[in-house]
Give the backbone structure.
Amino acid sequence: MQVGYNFIEGCRALSVAIMLVAITGCSGGASLDPAVAIDQPEADPGIAAPAVGLPQTDDDGLAPVAEPAPELEPEPASQEPEPVQSEEDESGSAPSQDSPVAASEPEVPEQTVWSAPIDGPYQLSDITDLVLLTGQSNALGAGTSYDPSLDGSDSRVLAYTNHGWQIADLHQIWDLGWHPGNDGSEAPSNNLALHFGKRMTQLTEGDRVFGFVLATAPGQPIAHWQRDGEFYQSIQRKVLAALAEHPTKNQLDGILWHQGESDANGGESYARALSNLIGNFRAESWFSGDRPFICGETAQFAVNAQLMALNHDADPWTACIAAAGLPTHEDGAHFLAEALRTMGQRYADVYNQMWWQSPR
């Protein structure tokens, strides 16, 4: 009896096992051949897909134990270089990475504000003589004294200032953004151009009105005035801006040159450089070969020989005034205000002599 019962139970267990195998086969639980897994056809729409969230089973009917995924170290955040905006050259093309980019030259401000009407009896259109003064520190006159009784204005002497043409006053700004004066609470420095103009009004007995442009480079040798250099180009721009305001003038009437302290030894090299400079000025549309170019001696240096040689060359429109021995500061190089007044008058005397041989 017991044997029969065991036989029946065994058959029942076998039937259950067979049913489980059949159910498993129908549910797609059989493992796929990995070699052909990517080529398996799409699932038959008549067969239900495994329920989401239920584990797939292996051939043995047991859900596989998933191996823990290896922990991945976080990738460092990419540090891409910031984009660099390329500069374009004059042709509009960006320079190649291996091509050096030339440093841009500092821009020199140009006059953009037209002069207001001059508060005086003479206007811009009345200027008969327009002169450029250029050179180094003695042409600038910084660090000199001011005497209201000797250094006052004259309505027939006009200066090209940072506000355009005005009656020349040493309290104005004529050059470098600060000279001769930019602080009304302090006495300004002096300048020989003012005294050149005032002396000319005396010599011409009121017939002419004088205007001047100041462009200086303190402490610089004559090489600083090379024609392809930035400073020379700044002179060009300043002169052209000053002339553009005059209703009829398109040329300077003279150039005053006071430089040489930074080329104290002078010599043939300075003589050649000075000759080239004069030639460059005369080649400009705003100057010519029949206008005075006048220089002045330094206080005591050997370069005076080359400067004074302009009094004996073949060019009747070049000359040099004597200045050696005039009072200076303790350094023996920078003239005092007293000397600048005298030098301005000497420049005027020579200019006036040349004027009478001018074709004007």
In short: The beta strands are 129-135, 157-161, 164-167, 173-175, 179-180, 210-216, 254-258, 293-296, 318-321. The domain at 124-355 is CATH 3.40.50.1110 (Rossmann fold). The two ends are 154 Å apart (CA to CA). Residues 1-8, 16-109 have pLDDT under 50 and may be disordered.
